[in-house]
Amino acid sequence: MTSYRSSQRLNPLSLLAQLSSRQANGCLQVSSGSVVWSIYLEQGKLIYASDSVDPFERLDRHLRRLSRQIPTLVSAVRVQIRLIFESDLESKSSQNSDYQAICWLVNQQYLNSSQAATLIEALAEEVMESLLGVKEGTYQLIDQDKIEALSKFCRLDLRTLVERCYEQLRRKQFSEATGVTVAPPRNDSGENGALKKLDTNPPKITNNRPISTANNLKSPVKNERDNIAKVTYSIACIDDSPTVLNAINSFLDDKSFSVVMINDSVRALMQVVRIKPDLILLDVEMPNLDGYELCSLLRKHPLFKMTPIIMVTGNTGFIDRAKAKLVRASGYLTKPFNQSELLKMVFKHLS
């Protein structure tokens, strides 16, 4: 297949059809304006698809949806992968940093291979739909050697995927033009698919710019996941400092959490019994009744024998940690801490 390095009119639908029929290997790179699309292929099957329009924002958005089913995909984990891999993208030392981030999530057992495949398909649909809107640009097919080292979680049928994205794009354009929402059509035969009609019925885009992936595109599994009830964890924060309580409440400002702030250690026991939290964050140094004593009392109550209790303190000595063990505290969080450290500790014990 000929590569075009100077800008020309493009028909992405026709280009992808050729790659599918010829069982192409390698990475198709399409450039239009400042945007670059990278489509990784193996024998005409899609391994991964990405573009240069904030790929980590897109990945984070899809991971947030997945977190409704996978509680360990917390903000701290998502921040961590951006810290590790987004710098590679910015320095241009790697062209598939977002895919490497998915591989890392699998290696660290935050995702299994099946979940990674579902994520890749959802990302690919969003990327492909934006690519189909391109009318002018350049492209080249990079040798397979460049992607052989990638872990493979799925091999998506390129023809089927592109047909689906093409129909979504057509319905969206019709709805925008007429204000009428069009239901997805039945397609009982592949003979009438979009790739069959690609030369006579190209997508009608009103301008030459790629469609914005941030505002216009939806995950193919969005409706299904939106119907899943989100798990909410109740967390009790016991500390005599309003500053610390407000900081924790701010760090846990997520629909996954229901935070109850308690500033009186004497009254804390009865309040905790009433709300029955999933996890307790307990300050060590409080007047009248310190955190160790309160933790010991909570452990004697039948409701809290197994409830995670995290001691929060500025003390880092061996004796302090030994005291926490003696009263059967679940963990030890040292002040000052940041949001990432707090979230990591919370989900470590909630999971």
- Shape type: elongated
- What is the number of helices? 12
Q: Separation of termini?
A: 50 Å
What is the makeup of the main sheet?
6 strands, antiparallel
Range of helix content: 40-55%
What order do the helices and strands come in, and which of them pair?
Layout: E1 4-9, H1 12-21, E2 26-32, E3 35-42, E4 45-51, H2 55-66, H3 75-91, H4 97-107, H5 113-131, E5 136-142, E6 156-157, H6 158-178, H7 222-226, E7 233-238, H8 242-251, E8 257-262, H9 265-275, E9 279-283, H10 291-300, E10 309-313, H11 318-326, E11 331-334, H12 339-350
Parallel strand pairs: 7-8, 7-9, 9-10, 10-11
Antiparallel strand pairs: 1-5, 2-3, 2-5, 3-4, 4-6
Helix pairs in contact: 1-6, 2-3, 3-4, 3-12, 5-6, 9-10
Describe the structure.
The protein is α/β, with parallel strands linked by helices and 351 residues long. 42% of the residues lie in helices and 18% in strands. The chain has helices at residues 12-21, 55-66, 75-91, 97-107, 113-131, 158-178, 222-226, 242-251, 265-275, 291-300, 318-326, 339-350, and strands spanning 4-9, 26-32, 35-42, 45-51, 136-142, 156-157, 233-238, 257-262, 279-283, 309-313, 331-334. The strands form two sheets. The chain has a six-stranded antiparallel β-sheet with strand order 1-5-2-3-4-6. Strands 8-7-9-10-11 form a five-stranded parallel β-sheet, sandwiched between helices. A hairpin with a 2-residue loop joins strand 2 (26-32) and strand 3 (35-42). It starts with a strand and ends with a helix.
